[in-house]
Amino acid sequence: MVKVKDIMTSRVISIESRKTIGDALELMVENGIRRLPVLAQGTLVGMIVQHDIEKALRSPGFVLETPVDWVMNKDVVTVAAEADLREAIKLLLKHKISGLPVMENGQMAGIISETDILRLCCTLLDEQLA
């Protein structure tokens, strides 16, 4: 059985809730990522994805200096590090999202995304064909 912790990305890039969406975009571009967990004093309080920012910037009143916490999703779906990978996949499908913060002992231990799962699928297919 594959567990979430086996394929999650441990090096998580996050952003503080009072930073701006411009700061978030800059972090995303610099690191080649599309989502950022949002923290307030070290605690996970939200998630922001590139699409959220682009949508906000097309709306009146939102500018690059808008705080992340005005745009972020506050209803964050998470998964336990020890969870079976199927649970993470079901959560991604159910909530129509592309990534989940991974929690361990009340702290964020990583993030798992569609890309991590697809990478595993490729590895398993390569092994099957070898």
Tell me the name of the CATH homologous superfamily. CBS-domain
Helix content: 40-55%
Give the mean pLDDT: 94
How is the biggest beta sheet arranged? 3 strands, mixed
Low-pLDDT sequence parts: none
User: What's the overall geometry?
Assistant: globular
Count of strand segments = 6
Number of structural domains:
1
Q: Determine the structural class based on helices, strands and strand pairing.
A: alpha/beta
- The sequence of SSEs as H and E is HEHEEHHEHEEH
Descriptive report:
With 130 residues, the protein is of the alpha/beta class. It has one domain (4-129): CBS-domain. Helices cover 42% and strands 23% of the residues. It has a three-stranded mixed sheet with strand order 1-2-3. It has a three-stranded mixed sheet with strand order 4-5-6. Helix 5 (85-95) links the parallel strand 4 (79-80) and strand 5 (99-104). The longest helix is centred in the last third of the chain and has 16 residues, at 114-129. The chain starts with a helix and ends with a helix. The model has no long low-confidence stretch (mean pLDDT 94).
Short synopsis of the structure:
By secondary structure, the chain is α/β, with parallel strands linked by helices. It has helices spanning 4-7, 21-31, 50-57, 68-71, 85-95, 114-129, and strands spanning 15-16, 35-40, 43-49, 79-80, 99-104, 107-113. The model has no long low-confidence stretch (mean pLDDT 94).
Describe the secondary structure blueprint for this structure:
Layout lengths: L3 H4 L7 E2 L4 H11 L3 E6 L2 E7 H8 L10 H4 L7 E2 L4 H11 L3 E6 L2 E7 H16 L1
Parallel strand pairs: 1-2, 4-5
Antiparallel strand pairs: 2-3, 5-6
